[in-house]
Amino acid sequence: MLVLTRKVGERIVISEDVVVTVTKIRGQRICLSVEAPRTIPIRRAELAPSQQTADQATSGGPVPSLV
To answer: Terminal CA-to-CA distance of the chain, rounded, Å?
Structure first.
């Protein structure tokens, strides 16, 4: 696992065409914008229960949500 610290306006480049930008930080909450092709599905973990269940089985615990 890679853990990064970012400030508002800073970006994380995941691949050539996927970029995550920190748009707002308010207390314990952050807002992220994700730039990616429409062909790449982007879902919150709680909205993808089958993937979350599979991730929990392999990691041994709950998967944190980004949004």
So the answer is: 19
Specify the pairing of strand 11-15 against strand 29-35: unpaired
d(CA 25, CA 9): 10
CA distance 42 to 36: 9
Say whether pTM exceeds 0.70. no
Mean pLDDT (whole number) for 28-44:
93
User: How far apart (Å, rounded) are the C-alpha atoms in residues 23 and 35?
Assistant: 12
The strand pairing partners of 31, in sequence order, are 24
> Does an H or E element contain 56, and which?
helix 49-59
